[in-house]
# Entry
Amino acid sequence: MGVGVVPEASVTLRDPAGLTSQVVTNVVGQYRFDGLRAGACELTVTREGYAPVTRTITLAGESRTEDVTLQVAGLSASVEVTGVTSGGLANNLVALTTAGSRRRDG
# Structure
């Protein structure tokens, strides 16, 4: 299974007062919120093709890093038989991936 960054994911943070802020991850999958209130916050990360992740984090007065791992939402494949010719089978394979994947060799 490949591991990689997820650019252009939507990251939403709801603070203790119920106010929300939203940012988008950059090309290396990083995000940043500034001027946050201390307390329990709800962090949600979404990206098309991946299952959303929501977690509660507690902020104090210091900066912190919160890494999030997204799981591919699902894959599907189908085989469509289009005809039989002279005892042989003519077919097409149609594979649909609903999310991108990365392969890392080495």
